[in-house]
Amino acid sequence: MTTTRVAVDVGGTFTDVCIMDEETGEIRIEKTPSTPDDPMRAIMTGVSQAKIDLADVTLFSHGTTVATNALITRKLPRTAMVCTEGFRDVVEIRRSNKEDLWDTYKDVAKPYIPRRDRLTVKERVDAAGKIIQPLDEEEVRRVAEILKKRDVKAIAVCLINSYVNASNELRVREILREVMPNVHISTSSEIMPEIFEHERFSTTMVNAVVSPVVVDYVSRLSVKLTEGGYRRDLLLLHSGGGVMTPASVKDFAARLAGSGIAAGAIASRFIGNL
């Protein structure tokens, strides 16, 4: 039995399927036109063209631009943000430093979540992690009901200083899940537990908006591969150059932004070392 490793990259024009024979080290490549409406179709077409028996595949890795394309085109599901009262404009104000200080006409990208869908709750944690204002849980429930009526598909929970004490954020998530059990929820204390609100809030916002798109795509691809005979984890290249499983994608979808770009950089290093 010949075992193989398969790597797939979906580009804007072509989908490349790279197959390596584990015994001989031989590498061959199949190309097939990409299908932007459903990238998975091109992947399975490429696998079929390459005459791969997925039962003999020991590793299936995938570099994808699904998250990147969703962010660029802004074809995203409706997403909300729940944050500390007084801080819902952090993602719009950004940091105080400006690249072009005197350019009054400079356009900046609008936040992925509009102000109307950035709701606030009363709570406050100081820089040392001490709770100086308890979370108003009834207000959180009211906010949850509002978001349920708006039929949002994902929520970013971003509270001040949650990187040092995440208890309020985690409680907000619990309440939101009680009201909306099927909504994707990203908390800033898990996505980016670091100081500086703008970076933490913005990264969590990106994770929230791409989660429904990416998780749906990855889940369907995993099922399709399993139905074809593949018995191991699908490995997805993330922006840091490593890989993650579909289970990790459910929590950290934003890490797939830049996946295909990272694959190109790693491939260049590999080729340069030949």
Helix count equals: 9
Largest sheet: number of strands, sense, barrel closure: 6 strands, mixed
Strand order of the largest sheet: 3-2-1-4-11-12
Global outline: elongated
Multimeric status of the protein: single chain
- Which parts are unreliable, with pLDDT below 50 for 5 consecutive residues or more? none
Please report the total strand number as a whole number: 12
Number of folding domains?
Answer: 2
**End-to-end gap:** 28 Å
Average pLDDT confidence is 92
Rg from alpha-carbon coordinates? 21 Å
- The percent range for strand residues is 15-25%
Encode the helix/strand succession as letters.
Answer: EEEHEHEHEEEHEHEHHEEHH
Please provide a written account of the structure.
There is one protein chain. The chain folds into 2 domains: 4-70 and 215-272, ATPase, nucleotide binding domain (Nucleotidyltransferase, domain 5, 2-Layer Sandwich); 76-206. 37% of the residues lie in helices and 22% in strands. It has helices at residues 39-49, 66-73, 90-93, 137-149, 167-179, 188-191, 197-227, 246-249, 259-272, and strands at 4-10, 14-21, 27-33, 57-63, 79-84, 118-121, 124-125, 131-133, 154-158, 184-187, 234-237, 243-244. The strands form 3 sheets. The chain has a 6-stranded mixed beta sheet. A 4-stranded parallel beta sheet has the order 6-5-9-10, with helices on both faces. The protein has a two-stranded antiparallel ribbon with strand order 7-8. α3 (90-93) links the parallel β5 (79-84) and β6 (118-121). The chain is elongated and about 65 Å long. It starts with a strand and ends with a helix. 40% of the residues are buried. It comes from marine sediment metagenome.
